[in-house]
């Protein structure tokens, strides 16, 4: 079988270094454009991408040698660098990567209370940045029950402990500073449904980034469902987890548009493995053309969003 351009890129050991250099150049361009140095968001960005590399390596998400999962994440996040101007989004990315990395350690282990605790601890830290992310706990439980086969009373109680632990540590500080009422108001927004699909504050950059992310999510999901028979059972379950979570995140985004930025980065994290799988494990003229078009479109979109900063 002859290798097409997408297969040569997907299997190349230079793919990740080249994509990383491109991402760093875009980051420097963003800093020059905004005349600020975003060191903390950059550190969060680097840690999040590194954790995606580890997630891919630990779980062998792609059955051939390929760095397309990490490259896909780099390309998608470069299109949304405007999100990282806001430091909390970078923190959300790190918390979610830690959460997913530990969540997958619970695969077929209903007694994995420790890993469940750490996974939901990461999610709980993310909710302190964006309270609406609490709704993603429901998606986690669904994934644990339907895909990972690790849900049990034991892991459920451990997940509740992990989810609430950050608030127990923060409570004395909030009481000392008199900020409890403000925090309670923030948490109340989780069950406030008066602004469903409130799109007034979403600009063109976010619309285009969301459209690109959802489009790639649909392409990657359809491809995986059609070709999943070729993967191991564990790999299938992990990818079905990604599909479930990005769709759940889309629902939460519609209900709580106020958390648009944080949920978008969550979707990007879940969709990156799907796109990596699509690019690395397809080999037709149509998919090769799609790879070229996707790459060009993401580069153009990144330049447009950089110009609009």
How would you describe this structure in keywords?
309 residues; mainly alpha; 75% helix; globular
Care to give the gist of this entry?
This protein is mainly α.
Which H/E pattern describes the elements? HHHHHHHHHHHHHH
What is the percentage of strand-forming residues? under 5%
Largest sheet: none
What is the rounded Rg? 19 Å
The count of strands amounts to: 0
Explain the overall architecture.
The structure is a single chain. The chain is mainly α and 309 residues long. Helix content is 75%, strand content 0%. It has 14 helices and no strands. The protein has helices spanning 5-10, 15-34, 39-59, 68-78, 81-84, 87-103, 113-129, 136-146, 153-177, 180-188, 204-227, 233-255, 260-280, 285-307. Helix 3 runs antiparallel to helix 4 (68-78) and helix 12 (233-255) runs antiparallel to helix 13. The longest helix is centred in the middle third of the chain and has 25 residues, at 153-177. It is globular, with a radius of gyration of 19 Å. The protein starts with a helix and ends with a helix. 44% of the residues are buried. The model has no long low-confidence stretch (mean pLDDT 90).
């Amino acid at each position: 079988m002859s290798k097409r351009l997408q297969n040569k890129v997907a299997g190349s050991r230079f793919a990740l270094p080249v994509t990383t250099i491109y991402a760093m150049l875009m980051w420097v361009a963003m800093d020059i454009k905004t005349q600020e140095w975003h060191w903390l968001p950059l550190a969060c960005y680097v840690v999040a991408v590194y954790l995606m590399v580890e997630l891919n390596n630990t779980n062998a998400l792609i059955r051939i040698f390929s760095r397309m999962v990490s490259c896909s994440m780099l390309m998608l996040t470069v299109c949304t660098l405007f999100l990282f101007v806001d430091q909390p989004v970078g923190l959300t990315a790190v918390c979610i990567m830690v959460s997913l990395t530990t969540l997958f350690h619970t695969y077929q282990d209903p007694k994995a209370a420790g890993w469940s605790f750490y996974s939901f601890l990461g999610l709980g830290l993310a909710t302190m940045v964006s309270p609406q992310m609490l709704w993603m706990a429901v998606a986690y439980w669904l994934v644990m029950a339907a895909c990972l086969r690790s849900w049990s009373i034991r892991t459920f109680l451990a997940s509740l402990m992990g989810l609430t632990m950050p608030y127990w540590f923060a409570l004395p500080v909030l009481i000392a500073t008199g900020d409890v009422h403000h925090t309670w108001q923030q948490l109340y927004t989780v069950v406030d449904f008066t602004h469903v699909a409130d799109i007034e504050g979403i600009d063109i950059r976010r619309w285009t980034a969301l459209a690109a992310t959802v489009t790639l999510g649909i392409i990657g999901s359809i491809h995986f469902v059609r070709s999943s028979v070729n993967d191991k059972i564990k790999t299938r379950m992990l990818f079905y987890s990604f599909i479930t979570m990005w769709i759940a995140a889309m629902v939460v985004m519609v209900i709580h548009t106020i958390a648009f930025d944080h949920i978008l980065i969550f979707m990007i994290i879940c969709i990156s493995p799907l796109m990596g799988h699509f690019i690395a494990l397809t080999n037709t003229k149509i998919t090769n053309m799609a790879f070229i078009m996707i790459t060009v479109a993401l580069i153009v979109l990144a330049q447009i969003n950089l110009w609009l900063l």
